[in-house]
Design brief:
The complex is a heterodimer of chains A (197) and B (244). With 197 residues, chain A is of the alpha+beta class. Chain A has a single domain, classed as Tgt2/MlaC (Nuclear Transport Factor 2, Chain: A, Roll). Chain A has 7 helices and 5 strands, in the order αααααβββββαα. A 5-stranded antiparallel beta sheet of chain A has the order 1-2-3-4-5. With 244 residues, chain B is mostly helical. Chain B has one domain. Chain B is 67% helix and 3% strand. A two-stranded antiparallel sheet of chain B has the order 1-2. The chains are: A alpha+beta (197), B mainly alpha (244). Chains A and B meet through α4, α5, β3, β4 and β5 of A and α11 and α12 of B.
Amino acid sequence: MIDRRHFIFSTTFLAVSNVATLGWAADAKDAEVLVTNLVADINAVISSGSSEAVMVKQFEEIFKLYADVPTIARYALGNDARALSKSQMEKFTKIYSVYVSHKYGRRFREFIGGKIVVQKSRPIKSFFEVETLAHLKGWEPFTVSFLVSNRSGKLLFFNMFIEGINMLLSERTEIGAMLDKRRGDIQRVMEDLQNSI
Amino acid sequence: MRILYKLTIFFVAPLFLLSACSTGFKLGNYDDPYENVNRKSHEVNKAIDKKVLRPSSKVYSKVLGQKPREAISNFSENWGLPKDFVNYTLQGDIGNVSKTTGQFLINSTVGIAGLFDPSERVGINARGTDFGETLHKWGVSEGDYVEIIFLGPSTERDTLGKVADLVLDPLGFVLNPWQSRLRSTANVGNVLGNRAALGSTIDSVLYDSADSYAQTKLAYLQGRRFRLNPEISEVYSDPYEMTE
């Protein structure tokens, strides 16, 4: 129950802090607060001991709440995004959001017994980098960095690096390869993504 | 004399070749001139994983409990520390030379030949290194990406580093055949244990992605560059600045 309360608490806090950042520039500290809440929610899910199905569903909610999903989806499509109609893009974003949160949710599930701790933050270009350290049983602690921006109108994360491995780049490579295999047919990519969820 | 000859062949000669074609930093660059050959090795490696490594790692973790697996991994890592010691010395990294020494001395004695890792509890825990990193510290660029059968993803520099590490390992001169076999067995156990621990992450890259070769290459190059240069790991692209 504590987990759930914490989840709701940080969700409320997030909504409030987002309202507060609208209209004026966010700073690295705001980004750090966002990632602290994100990480608290992730930690709550991994320590909850729920089944994989429940956890993955919770990660889906967390992803919707903290990530700039449309920007991530558009980047994953790369140049192919231009050829899509507005409604196609919306449909892709919706399917992609569930697909990607399940995919990474399953990864985070392996963090059971571990925890993620926020280290530091700094501004880069027009966004912020928040560095965290993931402590997993039996492994040397490793760095997970989040890139945070308020360019969407809300303060949200748009990329994640696990030990230097760029999530957006892996995702663009993946969607690019899927498109290649289906001769650029985005409709079929969407169907297959939907089926893989 | 024979050792000196080996060193020249394996290590000094290719070093000149590599630095001759060195291009400095390659962050954000994933050029792949050997792609055709690499993709073939990748298929072989995938088959080895599917038929041998993956199933044996499952058996390994089923047969042995958490504790024995940990002990085997500790043992394997402990007896790899002299190689780290040599590399940190060559890198002129005094801090890590003493950490590695401390870790090795504590774990080999209090930790019963390295089966346990008490040095970690007292905060002495050097991060691992290799001759690929030593070459990097000496200014040798990574060269091109290669995927090699059995060895997996690597770069020209890091492959050379792996060969040099075999030659430079001080224990290679000290251990008798029986001890050598014991250590090799523990190393195999460590590999199986790691494959089991990273199970679904590796599975998702190798078997669930649309292009497992491309994903392996990206993950290896980025992970390696980050490890060698955590401060300037990646060229951050800004998706908000992209024209649509």
